[in-house]
Amino acid sequence: TYQVSELTQCELLTKMIGRNSLSMEQFKPTRQLENEECVLEVRNVTRAPHVNNVSFQVKKGEVVGLAGLLGSGRTEIARIIFGCDVPDSGEIFISGKKLRLRSPEDALNAGMAFCTENRREEGIFPEISVQNNITVCSLKDLSTAGFIQIKDKRKLSEEYIQRLKIKT
After folding, report:
1. What confidence category does residue 55 fall into, taking pLDDT thresholds of 50, 70 and 90?
2. N or C end of the chain: which has fewer CB within 10 A?
3. How large is the greatest C-alpha to C-alpha distance in the chain, in angstroms?
4. What is the pTM of this model?
5. DSSP per-residue codes, 129-146
6. Tens of pLDDT along 2-38?
7. β-pairing, 89-94 with 38-47?
């Protein structure tokens, strides 16, 4: 237990993670972002028991990481922002527009993406092929009159396999 005035942010982080490999210099922005457009705003989001009144903004050009110990709510807030879970209260805005996320599809339609921390259990369908995993979210775009265009599906999956260096 420490008084707030006794610890710097770096010392607090060192005590939380148990090693002194961090420098607060690493976390300073390389350019000023105060006048940049706010692309994501989370306002007073709560989902008991892990997320309690969370608010933050992400400006254009900013990279934000959610970090914390197990049970701190980092995973839960990410799932709420992407529409996987519904908050008890609060608001989420993309470029100033309030979102009503009822599902991950709503988040995808708003231009979001989600990288789960547990790819094997939440990021893929293990029982289907790599090609089908890659294209499952694009089936609407790959179909004409309700029929999936196999040639386009194959081309898209090969493109992603090359770009992302996926081992099949």
Report:
1. very high
2. N
3. 67
4. 0.67
5. -HHHHHHGGGTTTTEETT
6. 888 888 887 887 887 777 655 556 666 666 666 788 9
7. antiparallel
